[in-house]
Amino acid sequence: MIEVGGRYNISRPGDIQSHRLSSTIVWTPSPRRSFSRARLAGRKRWQVVTHRHDANPVSFNEFSLAWREKVTSSIALSVQGDRYHNPSNTRSGVTLGVARYW
User: Fold this and answer.
1) How many other β-carbons are positioned within 10 Å of the β-carbon of residue 42?
2) For the segment 63-86, what is each residue's pLDDT rounded down to a tens digit?
3) Taking Cα atoms as reference points, which of 44, 43, 34, 39 lies closest to residue 4?
4) What is the model's pTM?
5) What is the DSSP letter of 55?
6) How far are the Cα atoms of 10, 34, 70, 87 from residue 74, in angstroms, in the given order?
């Protein structure tokens, strides 16, 4: 499965504009296993309310990889790694999860 999306936002007051593009690819080689890759990129901006001054727009990039494995017919385990970057902030992490199917 391949998914592509986008968002454009205008906030008022202040005429703050932001946008982002996203893409996700999910590969399911068997009924028990799936892998996914997601990518987000765009620009965001904040308005400083106290001085009626707009902060400069900031470009950002986010990337994630995930693996989900069914261990029984109703339980799956997942692991996901993420990385986010903009000019003033970089973060990365790992998420572990359990899913229950009914």
Assistant:
1) 19
2) 999 999 999 999 999 999 999 998
3) 39
4) 0.74
5) P
6) 43, 15, 8, 43
Q: For residues 18, 89, 98 and 35, what is the CA-based torsion angle, rounded to 10 degrees? A: 70
Please list the residues that pair with 82 across neighbouring strands.
64, 93
Name residues whose C-beta falls within 8 Å of residue 20's C-beta, 6 or more positions apart in sequence: 6, 7, 40, 41, 42, 43, 44
Q: Where are the domains of the chain?
A: 2-100
Q: How many helices (H) and strands (E) does the chain have?
A: 0, 8
CA torsion angle 71 73 79 84 (round to 10): 170
79 within 8 A of 64, measured Cβ to Cβ = no
Contact indicator for 6, 20 with CB cutoff of 8 Å: yes
Please tell me the distance from the alpha carbon of residue 102 to that of residue 83, in angstroms, as a whole number.
32
